[in-house]
Known about the structure:
5 helices; 0% strand
Amino acid sequence: xxxxxxxxxxxxxxxxxxxxxxxxxxxxxxxxxxxxxxxxxxxxxxxxxxxxxxxxxxxxxxxxxxxxxxxxxxxxxxxxxxxxxxxxxxxxxxxxxxxxxxxxxxxxxxxxxxxxxxxxxxxxxxxx
Length: 128
């Protein structure tokens, strides 16, 4: 990273979001297919955006487990409740954020499992 570059001012995910919004504003992105809604299901998004970081925090921060294991267990339990509620609502949503029916496909399920395993290995086996 070079000092003074845009990445030092704007974190990378927000930079991509900003670039996408600018492209959308300039009309460089295609429109929605016919019959698709552009509305985001906010309750499902909130459940996913709170449950997933809670689970990832409990997995990645082993320093939580050693002095206070009850906090780690509570965090995993909260993540399980939030993600369970998200999955239940997501199956009933008219326009889901994530199509859970994809997990019925064995190839997609294998790809998802391998990506999650690789990400877990990167998090848990880091040298620092």
